[in-house]
Design brief:
The protein is mainly α and 192 residues long. The protein contains 9 helices and no strands. Helix content is 67%, strand content 0%. The N and C termini lie far apart (64 Å).
Length: 192
């Protein structure tokens, strides 16, 4: 009986995304493992932008992976990166569904104006610190900010996704930016 070589990330890179998608469509368990090996870290990072609590994030990721594997036969390959983008959309949607179910997405249209601070040189803030600042935003601010900045959704698309008005999306984004500017400026001031 021949022994299987140990699994490594190099093996998962050797399989093209197109081939991986085809094998997932056939419910190949080895392809599922390769998919997990290749994309779990990325999907964790995406999910953590919306659900920063580790235990809750694990649940969201498990649901996302189940949906990805169960719907793989419906995935349509459109070129390199399309499988990763499709998995990312599923993960974001599962995170949004989780936040809605928890009642954590509250949007208030009538908030006092927050003066916008000019952001200083963001390059002076380590990426991990910046990610922490984003995770610390209130759920509504964080969700709109992430959808606008990272998912590149328009305020119209965000409003449709979250069931809010377009101007509510814009105001949540504005307030998130103001909140981040304050934190960034304070961080820079403390480290000068």
């Amino acid at each position: 009986m021949t022994e299987r070589p140990p699994h490594n990330n190099t093996a998962s890179k050797a399989v093209s995304e197109k081939e991986l998608a085809e094998r997932l469509r056939r419910r190949d368990s080895e392809a599922m493992r390769l998919f997990y090996e290749r994309y779990a870290g990325f999907l964790t990072a995406v999910g953590s932008r919306y659900v920063p609590e580790r235990d809750q994030l694990k649940d969201v990721l498990q649901d996302a992976l189940l949906q990805i594997f169960n719907a793989a036969d419906k995935f349509e390959y459109r070129g390199e990166g399309s499988l990763k983008a499709w998995a990312c959309r599923i993960t974001v949607n599962r995170a949004l569904k989780f936040l809605r179910a928890q009642g954590r997405l509250r949007f208030v249209d009538e908030l006092p104006d927050v003066p916008e601070e000019e952001m200083r040189e963001m390059q002076q803030v380590p990426p991990a610190v910046l990610q922490d600042f984003i995770r610390e935003l209130p759920d509504g601010y964080r969700t709109v900010f992430n959808l606008f900045v990272f998912e590149q959704k328009s305020h119209r698309e965000i409003a449709a996704l979250l069931g809010i008005r377009e101007d509510s999306s814009a105001s949540q984004y504005f307030r998130a930016r103001a909140h981040l500017a304050k934190k960034i400026n304070q961080y820079i001031k403390n480290h000068e």
